[in-house]
């Protein structure tokens, strides 16, 4: 992929760039191990993948991490892209999406001894579920939520969610990125570490959530996203590491 063809594509949406061809991208500051801020520095799988893409694209991604709702609103306002976002029909009205960047299992975590059978959304009816503020857990789940078939108490971090589960304020916590996400969340908090053996994920995840890079349609980033997808295909074996 030649630098000048990429640069030409980027020029078509110049308001999104600074003078040195840096692309601003917003993301969650507290979703380890997928993406989080460590003393202000982006860490995790998504920042690693973006860094791998920079040489192929001839650009630099400037990651700005904050609580998820703020990151989402910053991107929706046209100030940059959004990394780690799920695709829904409602969001497709506002954003242009890349190809999938990362697959994220959303597990249902409960306290040991309080497991229950989960095969369909109806099994969650009446359960006190904890989830991320502003997050989508798939269109089927979101529809059930709108219809009042399930209920979710929202918060801003997975640590906060597991602490509420431990205190008996939730029946189950929705935790992203499979067992790695559970382990990283527990490792981030001393109280959770002391009680790590009390947490268990149900056998079946709530969903396997594909995460994307998206830009608001107002930024006209379609050409850049095509270049992004082409570069993503070239590093895909490394991205899955």
From TrEMBL:
Signal peptide: 1-19
Residues in Solute-binding protein family 3/N-terminal domain copies: 22-241
Transmembrane segments: none
Keyword field contains Signal: yes
SMART domains reported for this sequence: PBPb
Superkingdom of source: Bacteria
UniProtKB keywords: Signal
Protein name stated in the entry: Transporter substrate-binding domain-containing protein
Species of provenance: Niveibacterium microcysteis
């Amino acid at each position: 992929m030649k630098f000048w063809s990429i640069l030409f594509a980027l020029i078509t949406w110049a308001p999104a760039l600074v003078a040195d061809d840096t692309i601003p991208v917003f993301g969650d500051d507290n979703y380890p191990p997928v993406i989080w801020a460590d003393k202000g520095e982006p860490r995790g799988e998504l920042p690693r993948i973006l860094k791998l893409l920079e040489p192929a694209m001839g650009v630099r991604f400037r990651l700005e991490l904050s609580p998820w709702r703020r990151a989402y609103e910053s991107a929706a306002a046209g100030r940059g892209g959004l990394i780690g976002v799920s695709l829904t029909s409602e969001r497709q009205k506002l954003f242009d999406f890349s190809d999938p960047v990362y697959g994220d299992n959303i597990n249902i975590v409960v306290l040991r001894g309080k497991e229950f059978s989960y095969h369909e959304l109806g099994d969650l009816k009446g359960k006190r579920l904890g989830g991320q503020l502003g997050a989508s857990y798939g269109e089927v789940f979101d529809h059930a939520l709108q219809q009042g078939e399930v209920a979710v108490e929202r918060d801003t971090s997975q640590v906060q969610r597991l602490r509420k589960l431990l205190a008996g304020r939730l029946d189950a916590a929705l935790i992203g990125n499979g067992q790695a996400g559970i382990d990283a969340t527990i490792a981030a908090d001393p109280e959770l570490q002391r009680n790590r053996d009390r947490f268990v994920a149900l056998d079946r995840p709530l969903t396997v959530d594909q995460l994307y890079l998206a830009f608001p349609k107002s930024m006209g980033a379609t050409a850049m996203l095509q270049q992004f997808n082409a570069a993503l295909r070239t590093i895909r074996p490394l991205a899955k590491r």
